[in-house]
Amino acid sequence: MDDYCVDFGAIDGTMLATVGGKAANLGELTKAGLPVPQGFCVTTDAYRVVAEADELASTTPENARRTLLETPVPQEIRDAIVIAYRELGDGVPVAVRSSATAEDLPFASFAGQQDTFLNVVGEDAVVDAVRRCWASLWTDRAVSYRETNGIDHTTTYLAVVVQRMVQSAVSGVMFTANPVTGKRDQIVIDASPGLGEAVVSGAVNPDHFVVDGGEIVEKRLGDKRFLIRSLPGGGTEHVEAGENEEPCLADGQIHALAVLGRKVQAHYGSPQDTEWAIDADGELHLTQARPITTLFPLPDNPDGGAHVYFCFSLAQGLERPITPMGRAAFREIARSAFEIVIGDPASQSYVESGERIFFDFTKVLQSRVGREVVTRLLGVMEARSSEVLRSLFDDPRFAIRNSSATPALKRVLRLARRFSLPVTAVKALVNPEKAVRNALLMEREVLERSAALPVEQALRRCVVPMLPRLAPTALVGFAMLGLVGKVVKVRPGELQTVLRGLPNNITTEMDMAMWDLAQEIRRDPVALQQFQNGERPAALDRFLAKWGHRAVAEIDLGLPRWSDDPTHVIGVVRNFLRVEDENAAPDVVFARGAAEAEAMIETLARRAWGRGWFVRFALRRTRLLAGLREYPKYLVITLFGALRKRVSEIGAQLAADGRLDAAEDVFFLDFEEMRSLQGELRAIVAERREVYDREMRRRHIPRVLLSDGTEPEAVHHGTPAEGDLVGTPASAGTVTGIARVVMDPVGAHLEPGEILVAPSTDPGWTPLFLTAGGLVMEMGGANSHGAVVAREYGIPAVVGVREAVTRIRTGERITVDGSTGAVITIDD
User: Going by DSSP bridges, is the β-strand pair 797-799/774-777 parallel, antiparallel, or unpaired?
Assistant: First the structure.
């Protein structure tokens, strides 16, 4: 062998740049003594001779392919391929497959993106197949896949695997973890007669087997109506086989495959996606292995026991990863919460995985009180998570171990005494106006107190200790609403109407300030011209001076605030400037909602007869106090804004000292690293940015994750109900309109009256609600941020709708029934 061709036996996992991902894995498996058919790799050095990556990247994929197909294979490369091929045998059939440097990686499999040629026979045919593999690096799908995964075309090169064909009697794929449920100790096998291409390409309905431990727990037979087999002299053919009701694998073969799969996984130390074949003599061959890229990484589990992890990030509306600095901030907050609530600042209940925040809910589920409190709370905050957690109640691993309510009651009483919760609640009930004034004074107090503390101390002392001073006030408002529901017979949606146009809601005030900003720009020709020219009118700067500490995904301290990057604000203002109908103006809609709420109070009071005085008393307090529900988070974000400025100043100094490339890189450090007096920080930042960018491309985040990798939501589908899609009613009313699926609010365009369909929302999304006709969310419960604001604006809303953003398409007409929770597609 020479620089252009390398035998599998001489390849290992360190040679990715030379042989590509597929060949590197095959070399590793060969050296591990696993049953890999003999073969060799045509290296990237050969590709570099015939291809100039910079030039190919600058042209169209079609031209790049044509260039590679029309460029003659240099004689020295051809000779190397022929010599290596002859060493496999005289005219032996081979499979010729691509092996790109960006392929079979932990975060990108590139499965099927480049071409494979099966049963290639003869020297000329093998050389031609190699040339066609090179060209397939530039198929439209491969180019698109690289762009989606952020892989630079100019740094991607192609090697080619040439491997002896296995004339398969049966073949297929095997996952050493369940790719659907995530369960790590299940092996999933799909199999069909003939060559594995039928299964890999999805062209046939294969037999499906699941092995759990040493037991085959599932057998589902496919029709296997046709197979692919080799032709004498080269090439393949599709053969109609008719429906076959017999399994193509015997139990012994299934167990043998499972044993092989576990060996492969043990070698790599992570779950693997493998391809295999069994020949006519019953011999098992391993033809490929690569990491399973879709599995969510598991949190560290030092005790090895069964654990339930709840994704806090996702419950807060963040599908994206959280920056290292953002997670460092939450570690401090969690430490404070554990110290105050359970007396253990070193609790292991806070965990991180996949650059996201989880909480270990194992002990919660093992407590009768914990189950009841947490699932009820999540029922109004994040209904789908509550449903998933309830599905685990019968799992013996999480059986109740603590049935007594006494410890929880003592803890609640201790906290009530420490923070004077009953006194705060009574004061809010007696004098709600004063309670609101006192709450609104806390912004200055938090900022002044935090300014005198180090960043970590500010996070520990100015977040969790602050919440008990605010929470009882808002809770009194909702408690009064609930009491009215006991006193008066109410129809669906009537109590939600009382929550429309609430005063004292800081998020609503922010949205209205943004609407006022748009109207001020509209009325001022100079400001309007500046805005249309991409300049910043003074009105925008005034808005940012008050609200610039807010942001989309604002619970991440590491992300820019609106004052750092006002792109989102500008986009929302542009949407507002399109509103021409006065009746659709947000301030008019808000005032109309408030009037409807007052009218509903009178309706319910009259219906209550002699108890009408109580209904008016209770619901007036609901109107005054319930809006404060948003204020605790606002104070946290206000604190984050102030702390972010301080961290940015340290980042600027580190950049000036040459220890960071840019000031914003500081948000990829933690607090200890940020304050370190010496040492190289660039390498740390580069490594973390790479991981962060990779996690940004992750498309699925588990709501609840078990320590064995299982995602309970993947095996729990709830109770069927009528309607195309069904979720949790969040804001009463019915609307039919055009759906607009929005995955990111920054720069989103929403026409007035369109129904916003989103994966989740936080307050950064809510300005879009002002022109929306309705709201559909995958996440959230009846008391989530989106639901609260939707009610206040009087737009129908349904939340917790499974797969909403994938099953609803932009431009479809849908009906949203906010009273029943149904979302129905209207056929044209």
Answer: parallel
Give me the torsion for CA of 215, 221, 227, 228, rounded to 10°.
-40
CB–CB of 596/540 below 8 Å? no
Active site residue 785: yes
**520 residue type, one letter:** E
Query: Which H or E run includes 5?
Result: strand 5-7
Cα 569 from Cα 52, distance rounded (Å): 44
- The proportion of the chain whose per-residue pLDDT surpasses 70, expressed as a percent, equals 92
Residue 71 near residue 50 (C-beta atoms within 8 A): yes
Q: Which amino acid is at 389?
A: L
816 confidence band (pLDDT: 50, 70, 90): very high
Strand partners, 704: 310
| 430-456 tens-digit pLDDT | 999 999 999 999 999 999 999 999 999
Enumerate the H helices of 342-405 as residue ranges: 362-365, 368-381, 383-390
Give the pair of three-digit tokens for residue 624.
């005054």
Q: What is the DSSP letter of 402?
A: B
CA-CA distance, 446 to 449, in Å (whole number)? 5
pTM reported for the whole predicted model: 0.82
Rounded Cα–Cα distance for residues 414 and 495 (Å): 33
Q: Are strands 774-777 and 755-758 parallel, antiparallel or unpaired?
A: parallel
Q: Rounded to the nearest 5 degrees, what angle is found at the Cα of 412, between the Cα atoms of 408 and 415? A: 140
Task: State what percent of residues in the chain have pLDDT above 90.
Answer: 63
pLDDT band at 573 (very low <50, low <70, confident <90, very high): very high
The tokens describing 593, both together, are 């909602």
What is the distance in angstroms between the CA of the first residue and the CA of the last residue of the chain? 65
d(CA 750, CA 517): 18
Q: What is the pLDDT of residues 713-765, one digit of tens each?
A: 877 444 445 557 888 777 767 899 999 999 988 888 889 999 999 987 766 67
- Of 196, 122, 198, whose CA–CA distance to 166 is shortest? 196
pLDDT band at 593 (very low <50, low <70, confident <90, very high): very high
The percent helix, strand, coil of the chain (3-state, each to 5) is: 50, 15, 35
* Amino acid of residue 586: P
Residue 356 pLDDT exceeds 60: yes
Beta bridge partners, 189, equal 174, 209
Quick one: pLDDT at residue 140?
67
Q: How far apart are CA 448 and CA 803, in angstroms?
A: 44
Contact 770, 511 (CB under 8 A): yes
Tell me the three state secondary structure of residue 285. Answer: strand
The amino acid present at 62, given as its one-letter code, is E
Residue 665 near residue 655, CB atoms below 8 Å = yes
Longest CA span, the chain: 101
Instruction: Return the pLDDT at 718.
Output: 43
Instruction: Kindly report the number of other CB atoms within 10 A of residue 49's CB atom.
Output: 15
Contact 193, 248 (CB under 8 A): yes
Question: Residue 42: which of 136, 126, 166, 147 has the closest Cα?
Answer: 126
Measuring CA to CA, how many Å separate 52 from each of 67, 72, 80, 153?
Answer: 10, 14, 21, 11
- Contact by Cβ (8 Å): 333, 460: yes
Report the b/e string of 419-440 with b at 16+ CB within 10 A.
bebeebbebbbeebeebbebbe
d(CA 736, CA 723): 14
Cα dist from 403 to 396, 412, 804, whole Å: 15, 17, 38
Average pLDDT over the chain, rounded to an integer: 88
DSSP 296: P
Per the residue annotation, which of 285, 307, 549, 785 is the catalytic one? 785
CA angle 718, 720, 725 (to 5 degrees): 100
pLDDT at position 43 is 93
Give every strand in the sheet of 774-777, ordered side by side. 725-726, 822-825, 813-817, 734-741, 755-758, 774-777, 797-799, 728-731
Q: Which two tokens stand for residue 610?
A: 């002699």
